[in-house]
Amino acid sequence: MEIIAAITTGMLAAIGIWLMLSGNLVRILMGVVVLGNAVNLGVVASGRLGSSQAAFTTMEGVASGMANPLPQALVLTAIVIGFALLVFALAVALRAHAEHDSLIADDITREALLPAPDLPAADAGEIRT
Amino acid sequence: MLTGILGILAAMLVAPLLAKRLDQRAAWLLALAPLAAFLWFVAQVPQIASGVPLRESLAWVPALGVSLSFSLDGLSLLFALLISGIGTLIVLYAGSYLSDHHQLGRFYAYLLGFMAAMLGVVLADDLIGMFVFWELTSITSFLLISFQHEKPESRRAALQALLITGGDGLALLAGLILLGDTGGSWSFSTLDSQTIQASPVFPAIAVLILLGCFTKSAQFPFHIWLPNAMNAPTPVSAYLHSATMVKAGIYLLARLNPIFGGGGGWDGALMLFGAGTALLGAILAFRQTDLKRMLAYTTVTVPGQLTMLLGTNTSYGLQAFAIYLLAHSLYKGALFMAVGSIDHATGTRETGYLGGLIRFMPLTGAAVALAAFSNAGLPPFFGFIAKEFQYAGLIELGPLGWAITAVMTITNALLLTVAGIVFLRTFLGKQGRYPKTPHEVGVAMWLGPMLLALAGFALGVLSDFPEVWLIDAAVQAISYGPVAVRLYLWGGLTPAVVTSLLTVTLGVLFYLNSHRVRNALNLARALWHIKGDRLWDNLLHGIFRLAAWLATPFQHGSLQRHLALLVGVASVISLAIAAPLALHGLRDMQTSPILPPSLGSCLLTLAGALGVCFLRERIAQIAALSLSGLGLGLFFLTVNAPDVAITQIMVETLSVVFIALVLRRLPRSRRQPDTATRRALRLGIAALFGLAIAAVMLASLGRPLQGDIAEWFTAHSLPLGHGANVVNVILVDFRAFDTLGEILVVTLAALAAAPMLGSGLRPGGTAQRGFESVLLQQTLKPFAVLMLLIALLLLWRGHNLPGGGFIGALVAACGVLLVALGFGSRAAKGVLRAEPATLSGLGLALAAGAGVIGLLRGQPFLSGSWIAPGGVPLGSPLLFDVGVLLAVFGAVMHMLLRLLDEKEA
Q: Domain tally for chain A?
């Protein structure tokens, strides 16, 4: 099962990067989500799979074959933070579109890098080079 | 010594305040600090003259063996007297000179700061301590040169000086570190000459330190910054760029002379560069017509001559060094201040417009006369003795000495001519055409030049006095063997006297025929086109072009290319490392059996992700993304991670709503025209990255699981954390501090995102309306209530069963989301009854407060405390979990309501 999880993680990561390498902000956002999923899957899998029960203890003591609680705790918060990150990125995308009327990352960069209109041309040249 | 430096620094701190209250009168108060230091140094003269240096030490960075140790010997004393003495006069002078400047206080502060740094340089016994003060002088000098920063020339000159002296400070630092390392000691007084000169790195040390010293004291070819630095106000030129700072380089050379001298080409290098610089400076000075620039170039000459004199390492040469150092500081300080006064009084410094000033400015004139005679090296002034000994020292050297003597004769003759121009042309002769009617300057402005010039005269006439008290100790400090010191004005008809006579004759000739000489010099026009300044500008431009050329391929501003490069390089490196380990790991991995549900959910996750890539319709993409996330949630469930699974599923639900709400405000993405090669490249990088991640995973899975933290957590969850749900206990008890940080991040992200998502409900704007379907609304209502109840239940039981603050918050958020979508955002606000941001804040406060309970009980922050009233276990972790719930819930609601309320675009 670990091997399958590792391969799935790798493929998810590849898909995430593929989406992020596209110039479109919406696809980049979706790529971030997929990549985040890949990482969460990877962390849980690295705590080893194949447990026979969830991480709940009883008064009698610790049963054998219990799932590893540590990566679970890490991933649980990571999911929530990942959600906050997603919403923040969505907000930035909204804003970028409102400001520059484009969703293509490189177009936005180009526009944002233009020298301020009140700069004299010579100075602007210096900043560009 | 430390007290002296600190006293001056204290004066620097109060200077701006005092100047605001008292204007130029503050100078009289501020001058007290350097004056006190000067008097203290004077009081030390007898002890130093008897040959016993004074030491003080203060541990600074004991771990590195760096201490703030000071040592006062003959050389240091000579410099310290000059710095504090001239410094006192300069502070007074500056008060009057810049009396109408609006930033006078700042000027005092810079000047006093420089003074303290300069004293530090000459007093420090520790290599690193000395270097720190050395750099401080560079920085304060930068501030002083750029004091009139409204002028572009000042800014340029300041930057040039900083780059040249500061940049080569790095060479000096490298040299000093090598020196300390090789010599096995970090203090000047205990470095051993023989060990260092025998070391193979000695040439490197010498070159690095020479580089640092030559730039600081403006030796050729680094001399270009010094004349430009004269853009500073005149008191600065007088003080930094003639009397003290340029001599910091000379000081260090002298300080190291006993250690480096006598071999290894040190002497030769000093003589060669020194003599060359001296001649160049004299010729350039002669070509100037502006009085101040003229003096500036003679200031290039003098450090050159001083360097050369050190290089002779003869008895006379070293005596000449000490005398000349003193003499030059006295007369050049006086001349600079006087030129400043002339400028102040007449409004010009051009020799063509000046003449006959003695009638208007008798006191300044007298001071200039005295100083100029000393400058010209005429008897019985101190400058004469300096020149005499200079020749005597050179002649001692034999044929090489004669050659340099010839060069020096011309140099000194030119200096004499310049001195003549400065005094005769300016003060005698017929009245010039001044822009302003001249007047004698105030007492603060003529006192300085007068005192310095008189001192130059007195030291020459009473030459026994400096010999016994100052020069002897200084010469002993810079020579590598004992030297007999004996100063005299007249020593019979020696070759030196003959050379002196020749110098004077030549000088007078040059003066009388100055036009002809100048024309002759102009013939070599081609030479003057090779300007150091122009070369400097070209160099700077070259550096900028190089930087641009290097940076442009990387700083293209394209997100895609940045990401591709980063990911590509990272993948290749990690793949190279992880691939062999992964293969190894595959062999001895102990895998668990493949479970059909787990496998199925993995496939579901992948299918969803692929769907995002290939589906065209946006709504389909969102659905595919959600499918992928749900698949992952299922996977978590199948591997016995129920808490994670619930969280994942709830977050996925919320994500879909948020993405959908945002995307409906964005236009449909147009398909980007991607070329085939770019597409292939993207695919390649993505595949490489995926492989790298899989390899890293396999490599880590192939090794036995390290550490026993998980076991510890599991075993102690119930006994220590009073909870059966280990994951929850970790979150709210064992690792609660992490969780506190995480909910803080979530809250901050919400606060940052909210204003960009929407501006909130504006007056006149329409709130988001609900679905106008009675059936849907009627079904939603109980459902939402149920979800809120479930959230509370999840929170309560979370410590022992799946649930907890995070999950509760997400469930509650989904419940309110239903209300908001079904009945409009106004209804949702009604349910909340409070600002979501306030809820978040309250949550954070509760969580932190739960931690404080531990503190109050004398335990570490966030230690759990439990009570059980009536058999119901209650503890601070539960309170903490409530805080988590409120913080996360508030954050999600804050973003959601902002997004809903924004008017449709």
A: 1
